[in-house]
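Handoff note, outgoing to incoming analyst
You'll be picking up this chain. Sequence as last confirmed:
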Amino acid sequence: MQEIILKESKEHGDISFPFAYYHVTSSHPRYVMETHWHEEYEICRVLEGELKVTIDGQTYMGKGSNGTGDIFIFNSGSVHSAEPINCVYECMVFDLHFLLRERSLSNSFIYSILYNQRQFKPHIPFVSKDLEGPESLNRTLGQLFTVLQEQTIGYELKTFGLMYYLLGIFEHRDLFVLPNDTGQAVNRIMKMRMALSYIHRNYKNTICLNELSELLELRPQSVVKLFKDIINKKPMEYINSYRVQCAMEMLKDQTQTVTNVAYECGFTDVSYFTKVFKKFTNKTPREYLKNAHDGGDILHMVNVPNSVDTSLEDEGDDTMMNAKAIDKKVYLA
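Most recent structure output, in case you need it:
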């Protein structure tokens, strides 16, 4: 199965078949879905346990058992994340444009979604009766995910057929909502996306709160509030988590040293890098490196309460968000 890379530049599938399936368990390197966004749409289904999902600042708790459960849809451009709790879940990322066809009756329906005249409901709770009948969303979605996972001969055609059928179920059951197109709400999400993209491009460098303030044309205090409201993290915390995630990817390369990885990920002090890394993974970089090289179980990011270890934090207007300055540093995904 494919590995989930949460940076927005990630290609899901390819140009001739823009559909990608991911099955995620506790051994997956990206078990915790860090905050990110992408232009494609995404459907996620909880198979076992619980999944705490945040979409554009709204938090939902999804549950699953016996291989089926709640469904989440991440509309194009939505800022989303997920925290699993003893959970197994699966996702499909897809480009809705690919279902458009010349002189097709379905085009007007698909355009109504692409042009944001309506959006998929972000959370569809599981009900047992949904496993029965031709309009079963869970059963149809299960068939689609199985086709993408097994990829037997003819799977591309089956995928197209099931996708159109799935959209028909959404239309028949009216599983859409009107977009929150108030100027203030849209502006906040756009600013959040700008901030995340800026961090992704510049995490190797020192980032100041004032930089984000100037970029977003907000006061520093308002930048902190924006992050807290939409992704439930302060800017420095998000930056730190992103740097650590990048470091975890680099440490899989046996030619890398801890010192080099620290510098490449924006840390100027190795001891501080070690402290931050352990906070997010419960392992030191050297322990993680040894585990990876010895073929041990895959380690992943852990959920860090906002109240944990704030002794190194300083979120004044002139705070420098580099590896040495504070604990909530440049890290995202």
